[in-house]
Amino acid sequence: MWQSALQLVTRRVSDAVKDPPSANTAAPSEIDALLVDPTLASSQPGFISGDVPPQPEFVFGRGAVIESVAKEVLSSSAARIAILGQSGFGKSTVAVAVLHDPQVTTTFPSRYFVSCELAPTTELLEDLIADAISIPRPIRRSQGITLVSQIVSNVRRLSHPVLICIDDLEKLWDLDAEKQKLAQFLDCLSVLGPKLALVVIMRGTQEPKTSFPWSSSILPGFSTNQSIYMYEALSNKTANKPARKLLSKLNGCPLAVKLLALLVREGDTPSQLRSRWIDYNSKTHEIDENLNPSSLEQIIHLSVFNARISDSARLVLGLIALMPYGLSTSQPWLKDFESTLPTGTDLRLEIRTLERAALLQKAGMFRVRMLPPIREFCLTLVVPPSRRISSLIRSHIRKVIEHWDIWNSTSQSVIPLEMSNIRSLLLHGSTLKPLPHRIGRASASYANWAGWRGADESAFLRSFLRLSNSLRDKANIYHSLGKVYKQFCRLDAAIVSFSRSVELFTEAEDQQRVAEAYSYIAQIRIAQSRPEDAEASFTLALKIYVRLRDRMGEADIHAALGDFYRHGNRLDTAEVSFTRALKLCKQARDSSREAKVHYAMGGLHDLQNRLDEAEISFNHALTRYSECQDFYGKAYTHRSIGHLHGRRGQLNAAEASYMCALEFYIKAQDRWDEAAIYISVGRLHMRRNQLDQAGSSFSCALKIYSEVGAPLGKAIAHWSIGDLHMEQYRLDAAKASFECALDLYGRISDREGEAETHESIGEVHVEQNRLDAAEQSFAQALQLYHEISSQTGEASTHISIGDLHMQRDRLDSAETSFNRALELYGGLSDRSGEARSRHFLGCLHLRRDQLDEAEVLLTKATEFYVETRQPGREAGVQVSMGELYLHRGHLDAAEGLLTRSLTCSTERQDHQRIARCNLHLGRIYLNRQNIDGAGVAFARALAVLEEIGDVRGIARAHQALGDFHLQKMQFYDAEMFLNIALNQYTTKVEARRFEALTNCTIGELHVQRGQFDDGERAFRHAVDLYVTAGSRLGQAESHRGLGRLFMSKGDLDLAESSYADALRLFFEIKDYQAMSCLEELGKVWAKQGRMEGSEGWDVEVLRARWNSNESPEIVNDHLPIDT
Question: In degrees rounded to 5, what are phi and psi of residue 196?
């Protein structure tokens, strides 16, 4: 797989689509940290931390509950605990205390705390947990894997159990649109069993309804004594009568008791507070007699509207209440917040005052926030002046517009932590009149970031679309809507949105944004399989960038067009586009873009079989990726170089490159790509014939894909295991694996995968001699390839169908299939495919005894295989050429080719080809009367074939050994081997040509034994089989065998007729046996007392005719003469 150059456009306009490798490219600083220690990810500025909050300094009255919950966490094999209770009852405090319990920390080294206060959707909650457990953002939801599956996979990989605590769960559960999604998410987490302890915190008394039961702990209110004890401990005062009266009104609410105690500690007396309490109640009832504020609300009111809380402090409190995640006390946010306050306000002093009153509390080192009950009160009753709110909103609008680029490392350190605050402020801003300036553009930028985190905020954007009056804001919102729709595969809606943004940006005279919109439209048209429209949109974008003299825009579009042309098989045009993009990137000295274009160019050269140029391009890409610290880019390039080495047969170098990539993927916790490397390494092991190691690699990949819930990956792994079983000739196991793959491909509607698997199942049926079933599987594959316009797949299947036709002796149909494959591969400029097609066509002509045509095709196939550096397949053509030379009687040339092929096949441990070479070499030795050498070669072939279980090959080896024993006059052994072969051909293997050859050899055995009638039946049956198989050479040899039989029997007329039939056929196919057959016919004529045959044939005339038509390099005097 190589990187899509479309991603250059994607990155430029900050899309959130994650296609490898560029969309999987994290910020350099982020990945750099991961390479040092992957566990650091949660503490990086660009991530929302899931760290456990600090241990509470004081915990009153909850010791028994904490102990009970901790015991439940530790004792249960799969703890699922819901901590419930009213607002302010200390639910979060209990949970945090449990997380800090010594036994819990020992049992659960990995503990995480996340809050739904920061996640308005289930998708964002998933992201918070993914942040917490250090799943790098670039790989989230990649390759079609859900994020919850990745979370489950990561937890499963750990050697110890994990504890996750989710606070404020009611914030999501109470939303009708989220309830079902949240329940499904929790159900998915529950499959981890004992690997995960899950604690949720919810306001109320009802736990979430899920498929699994919860162990609920409902926190009660404090007893009177507990309230008094807590009050006295915090206030450093004895609870007098007024204090006790106040405490009795607080209903045992721990937060209310704490706030009361702190008020007293700071100088208020219980009597004063009780008086203010009564006064607040009276004023409330004067406003509305139905109002009945809770005791917690009343004590919060006393705390907020206290003489020690200045107006400026209340202003700070009211503004912070607008931000669910509180206020960051680090740059750059603190400076912006200060700018919204009146001149002279000491922000840090006011924060300390509010902290002393427990109205704010520290949330980590650089953040203060308020507890939910206090925030809810402030949102209603501590409302800052509208100009201050507007100022705060404008500061966030500026910040989110400034940091619009989701791929920028600085932006990733600024925006993600403030996502919930930005959303809250934008929604608040949408209620203001007039609307804050550029709020529409800010909402569009926010939606991009939300999409980066996997959240669909299209409804959020549409609400701003209705409110916005600014032309540019509307254009930006439509643009972002298009990106959201595109990300979530709502392509028609995306086209409508981008088209509307083009109109508005054109009206606003923003041509650069028009070009960006056209580039997105082009990408969507590609996804909709509308290439003409896609090219037209790319062209429009390019014209605009040229007019604007925007070099980077030009470069991105040229790169995208190059990728578009490459996928459309317009390879020369693609190279022109990539070259233009590369030139522009170099002029701009943009290493990141240059690396991606070099990578794309390397993939193109690889496709064109220009391997040296591909390697140069990939090495350039590696250099540039190193310069810009793009570690994902380096990893993908190492994979591509590994593939390149594999194509050249440099297996050790290939493995080294794959290991470089694997090292990074493991550190980055990129499990999909880790599994993909195991697949590639497994294939290397198969090529080395290290089948056990291959099986281990494929099984490892399958395990990973299963853990991360990746059906496509599982399908690929099952297919690879099936291919391994085929190599081991375990056909039933292979078929079972292929069927698993087929089922998975069908579930995810991967039609190309289905087609490839149907083709593989067809190959299994061929090996099992179930040729009708094989033909049906190949037809299904061909139909699917045609439907998805995969010409490469169609060509490959036509070759498989042609090979099947050859086995069934349908030679005309086979030729049609092979020629169609050659035509398709030619149109694709696929030299490797052309070579394969020519090889099969050459074998077809060899079957028809058309030796000259076969030689031309096989020679061309060899040239192409040499050009594309495929020594294994070149060795296969050498076997076929050796067979051709054997037919012509060029025994030395045949032996040389077969020996070279045998050496190459032995090095590559290609057992089937080793056996074929030995079978052909044995035939050469028989022709040279080296009988013992032939026997050794045939025995080696049989041993290899039996080892791999090749039934068809075993039958051929048995036939060859029968011939060997016949030559040695060992008739009993010859008969045994020949009968074994004949039984296999008639019951297990459909191969008429070899069945006919076996009958010929049996006929010769009967002649040697004087069993002429049995011999004649065998020869005539062989003739019939050869006629069906379309083999004129086989017919000629059978007629010649009949001639020998009749000669031995003394029936000279029938002998002459049979030899004459054989001679005609030998002359037609120019087979070297013609002269020896002529010599035998001459002996018949001599016994008949005449020098020419009944048809007027003369031996010398026939010899002259042979010499004039045959190649001059043949020395006929040395032709073997059988007696």
Answer: -135, 130
Helices (H), 490-530: 491-507, 511-527
Neighbours of 689 (CB within 10 A): 13
Residue 2 near residue 637 (C-beta atoms within 8 A): no
pTM higher than 0.90: no
Please name every residue paired with 369 in a beta bridge, in sequence order, or none if there are none.
Answer: 361
Query: Residue 47 in contact with residue 41, Cβ under 8 Å?
Result: yes
C-alpha dihedral sign at 424, 426, 428, 431: negative
Place of tokens 């954007």: 461
Residue 167, SS3 per DSSP: strand
Question: What's the token pair of residue 361?
Answer: 């509390």
Q: Crossing angle, helix 591-607 and helix 611-627, to 10 degrees?
A: 160
Measured in degrees and rounded to the nearest 5, phi and psi for residue 216 equal: -95, 140
Residue 776 has pLDDT above 50, yes or no: yes
275: phi then psi, degrees, rounded to nearest 5:
-65, -45
Calculate the average pLDDT of the chain: 83
- Rg over CA atoms, the chain: 41
Give the model's pLDDT for residue 318: 93
Note whether 960 and 938 are within 8 A (CB): yes
d(CA 679, CA 684): 9
Q: Which amino acid is at 938?
A: F
Question: Which tens digits make up the pLDDT trace of 608-645?
Answer: 878 889 999 999 999 998 888 888 888 889 999 999 88
Look up residue 6 and give its two tokens.
Answer: 């479309």
**Site of tokens 């996640």:** 119
Choose from 47-61, 132-146, 231-245, 874-888 the range with maximum mean pLDDT. Answer: 231-245
Non-local (6+) Cβ contacts of 508 within 8 A are 471, 472, 475
CA separation for the pair 1025, 1037 (Å, rounded)? 12
Q: Which residue has the tokens 């409804």?
A: 459
Amino acid at 29: S
Q: Please, where are the H alpha helices in 988-1031? A: 992-1009, 1012-1029
CA distances from 1106 to 1064, 1072, 1073, 1114 (A): 11, 10, 11, 11
> In whole angstroms, what is the distance from residue 277 CA to residue 727 CA?
85
The residue whose two tokens read 């919860």 is 214
- Rounded CA-CA distance 300/258 in Å is 10
Model confidence at 131, in pLDDT bands (50, 70, 90)? confident
For residues 87 and 206, the answer to whether their CB atoms sit within 8 Å is no
Nearest to 704 by CA among 143, 181, 186, 128: 143
446-498 pLDDT, tens per residue? 888 877 776 778 888 888 887 777 888 889 889 989 988 888 778 899 999 99
User: H-type helices in 322-457, by residue range?
Assistant: 333-339, 347-356, 372-381, 386-402, 409-414, 419-429, 439-452
Residue 985 makes CB contacts below 8 A (sequence gap 6+) with 955, 991, 994, 995, 998
Q: How many CB atoms lie within 10 A of CB 592?
A: 20
Vertex 651: Cα angle to 645 and 655 (nearest 5)? 85
Measure the CA–CA gap between 659 and 653, rounded to whole angstroms: 10
Three-state secondary structure string covering 40-97: HHHHCCCCCCCCCCCCCCCCCCCHHHHHHHHHHHHHCCCCEEEEEECCCCCHHHHHHH
pLDDT (mean) for 897-906: 85
What does DSSP say about strands 367-369 and 361-362: parallel, antiparallel, or unpaired? antiparallel
Query: Would you state the structure tokens that stand for residue 549, as one six-digit string?
Result: 């003299």
CA distance 927 to 916: 17
Mean per-residue pLDDT for 1011-1021? 91
Beta bridge partners of 201: 83
Q: Could you tell me the pLDDT band of residue 1100, with boundaries at 50, 70 and 90?
A: low
- Residue 890 has which token pair? 């060029």
And the tokens for 793? 């797949």
Query: What are the backbone angles phi and psi of residue 187, rounded to the nearest 5°?
Result: -60, -40
Residue that the structure tokens 């704490």 belong to: 258
